[in-house]
């Protein structure tokens, strides 16, 4: 039987980097993937465009990572945003930087990222096998000695010197992220920080959001209120859906809200539709429009202030007669309208399932992993990389960079370690 120095489990972002880097350093590497093709989740990131990374300064980047960004200090020092861009560019794939320092393939096609990395991996001599599910790690005297895998009802043991688990999380299970890595880690004695959805759309009480389904808002501010206290806010884009709220700023804030919901706390989202105007200036704007176009019916007047899909909802909440002319609007109702524009509230009742979550929060406890090598502190020659670890981040390319960096470091450390 062919022997390998390193077996990498999972051909996603972290696994591809780990396998490619280890082979580049001379290791005999086998890359195993339970799907029939590599990078299934990579293909759907960034709405099929693949938000590769984010060029924000490292100090700002670290603020986007949870729950322990310091754990990644060495990984980021070893391989960071410029390095993944340089790697892809060096293999002939051009990249571009868009708004918010987000990096994408110039072709706008995520498949080009996967194809480029696979060419690099194979050029470095990695052997790849697909439709192969690892059932167990082979452990002996406190160290890993290989893997047991299943393929077409056949079970096979493959010995090796080291194993890197890069199986991803539980989100988007249709892409192969079924939580296998957590099971393998637990069987080896590792602690798993409870899993929860992150970067996930939220469900709301009532039907206000549903009535605005499909409406996308730009340049608004969403604030999270937990048990009556403001906890965080984000500025940017959001979306109303048939179940509640989604869009970039909602996804970014979702981690905090999912945690609070699990703790049975009251969670609300307040949307400020006019963040550039304080209450006084906004009220003057409404009053000016009423004075200038007061013969308009309120159903039309509100279209001066709000997207059309929002008008019926505002009329219902404020109890304003849509047939009323603008100049007839009482000051109290004008103020009520103004305050609603600054504080449109939604009670959060839950979040969508792992099927719709972009990222899994929780995972293999980083307390049991060496931050300088990503090797297990419990089992020799066992390494971890990517989303399987208890690390996650905001939307915008940050999560993929964690995968690139930890994959590269794990591959490099495993290939250069003399321990067997």
Write the layout of secondary structure elements.
Layout: E1 4-9, H1 13-24, E2 29-33, H2 40-44, E3 53-54, H3 58-62, E4 65-66, H4 73-78, H5 81-90, E5 95-98, E6 102-105, H6 110-123, E7 127-130, E8 133-140, E9 143-151, E10 154-165, H7 180-187, E11 192-198, E12 202-204, H8 208-211, E13 216-226, E14 229-240, E15 244-246, H9 248-262, E16 267-272, H10 279-292, H11 298-301, H12 311-318, H13 331-342, E17 344-351, E18 359-364, E19 382-384, E20 392-393, H14 398-416
Parallel strand pairs: 1-2, 1-10, 2-7, 10-19
Antiparallel strand pairs: 3-6, 4-20, 5-6, 8-9, 9-10, 11-18, 12-15, 12-17, 13-14, 13-16, 14-15, 16-17
Helix pairs in contact: 1-6, 1-14, 10-13
Description:
- The model has no long low-confidence stretch (mean pLDDT 95).
- The two termini are 19 Å apart.
- With 420 residues, this protein is an alpha+beta fold.
- The longest helix has 19 residues, at 398-416.
- β14 (229-240) and β15 (244-246) form a beta hairpin.
- α1 runs parallel beside α6 (110-123).
- It has helices at residues 13-24, 40-44, 58-62, 73-78, 81-90, 110-123, 180-187, 208-211, 248-262, 279-292, 298-301, 311-318, 331-342, 398-416; strands at 4-9, 29-33, 53-54, 65-66, 95-98, 102-105, 127-130, 133-140, 143-151, 154-165, 192-198, 202-204, 216-226, 229-240, 244-246, 267-272, 344-351, 359-364, 382-384, 392-393.
- Strands 1, 2, 7, 8, 9, 10 and 19 form a seven-stranded mixed β-sheet that branches. A six-stranded antiparallel beta barrel has the order 12-15-14-13-16-17. A three-stranded antiparallel β-sheet has the order 3-6-5.
